[in-house]
Amino acid sequence: MKKAVLFDLDGTLLNTLEDLANAGNHLLSTHGYPTYPVDRYRHFVGNGVLKLVERILPAPQREDPALVAVFKDEFNAYYQAHKEECTRPYPEIQELLENLRTRGVRLAVLSNKPDPFTRALCNRWFPGFFQVVHGQREGLPIKPDPMLPRQVLQELGVEPQEGLYLGDSGVDMQTARNGGLFALGALWGFRDAPELLENGADALLQRPLELLDYL
Question: What is the pTM of this model?
Answer without folding.
Answer: 0.95
